[in-house]
């Protein structure tokens, strides 16, 4: 058995490669410290006191996040043609100005009764007949989503 030096920097240098390997695989900091037999408080102390250790830990975590991002993007590309929710999610985030849900102006189904609801300026209005396009709530929701772009979001930006 190898004896680990008593100085914290030596211990950090010895443990660093394995901790970084665990972090790059997605293990959290607390669990990685536990696996390596050190207290999490020791881990955080090393992060504060040893710049090379902290840098290696952050790099390992970034590797994991990048790998997860790539995997998620690949999954979206794989399923976008067969699952409408993948396409909707992608459009809402990539092209938010055109496709993101507008706060307060949404329509949808509620419960088993099949009532159509419109959420307009924080108020919920129900249409008794989903086929009735002349319903006040439906018209108001339609008008709210048809505002010119220069008027949308003007209140939140402090513009007149």
* The number of domains: 2
Query: Looking at the chains present, what oligomeric state does this protein adopt?
Result: single chain
Strand order of the largest sheet: 1-2-3
Strand content: 5-15%
Give the overall shape, derived from the CA principal axes: elongated
Describe this entry's structure for a reader.
- The protein has 7 helices and 3 strands; from the N terminus they run ααααααβββα.
- It is mainly alpha-helical and 160 residues long.
- The protein folds into 2 domains: 8-78, no CATH class; 101-145, no CATH class.
- The chain starts with 7 loop residues before the first helix and ends in a 15-residue tail after the last helix.
- Residues 1-6, 130-134 and 151-160 have low confidence and may be disordered.
Write the layout of secondary structure elements.
Elements: H1 8-24, H2 29-35, H3 40-49, H4 51-79, H5 84-94, H6 96-99, E1 105-110, E2 115-120, E3 123-127, H7 136-145
Write out key terms for the chains shown.
mainly alpha; 2 domains; 3 strands; 55% helix; disordered N terminus; disordered C terminus
Quick rundown:
This protein has 160 residues and is mostly helical.
């Amino acid at each position: 058995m190898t004896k680990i030096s008593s100085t914290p920097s030596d211990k950090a240098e010895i443990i660093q490669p394995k901790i970084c390997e665990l972090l790059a695989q997605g293990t959290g900091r607390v669990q990685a410290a536990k696996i390596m037999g050190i207290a999490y408080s020791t881990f955080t102390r090393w992060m504060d006191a040893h710049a090379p250790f902290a840098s290696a830990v952050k790099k390992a975590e970034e590797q994991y996040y990048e790998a997860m991002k790539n995997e998620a993007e690949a999954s979206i590309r794989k399923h976008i043609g067969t699952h409408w929710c993948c396409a909707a999610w992608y459009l809402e985030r990539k092209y938010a100005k055109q496709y993101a849900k507008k706060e307060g102006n949404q329509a949808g189904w509620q419960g088993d009764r099949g009532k159509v609801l419109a959420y307009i300026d924080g108020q919920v209005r129900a249409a008794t007949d989903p086929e009735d396009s002349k319903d006040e709530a439906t018209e108001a929701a339609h008008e709210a989503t048809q505002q010119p772009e220069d008027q949308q979001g003007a209140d939140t930006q402090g513009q007149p």
